[in-house]
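Hey team,

Filing this mostly as a record. A colleague (T.K.) asked me to run one chain through the structure pipeline before their review meeting, and I want the input and output archived in the tracker in case anyone asks later how it was produced. No errors, nothing strange. Just documentation.

Input sequence:
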Amino acid sequence: MTAGSDGADAVGAVYVVDGELDVPASEEGLEAMLIRITGGSVSITASDDGLNATAGTADGGTEQVEDGVLLDVTGGTVQVWAGSDGIDSNGQASITGGTVVVSSAAAMGGNGVFDVNGAFESPGVVALTSAVSAGEPGGGSGGPGGERGGPPPSVEASQGTQS
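Output structure:
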């Protein structure tokens, strides 16, 4: 699916249990109060935040913690190319399984690969952060919100795996 705004925007929750979800172009990739990924394959390209857990009650850019907001990855494969924050939660976030790979052009004004206002649980996760220019994700052509140039290199988070 290609979206001018949000790839998937829900007032309540977005669940990915199995299958394949590909958002090749969007402003915000997935946005909801609860984002839960337990399996399948998720691939997001966003000009702003890739995964954005929010209740929409806090002004953008604040560090206010929103009650009941959760981004939870327990399985599956998640790849995010983001022009701002790769994974943004205005509440809590948890990555306890699966494989998560994020490329964030933090130099474009975001906080980086992870922007979590509340508690962040990530046992066994290895995070290597680096910003890429908006036009060069993975060293190829295209950019956040546009075409993907290659696999995102910035962060690899894999339960029990170090690289």
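Quick notes for T.K.: The longest strand covers residues 41-46. Confidence is low (pLDDT under 50) at residues 1-5, 129-163.
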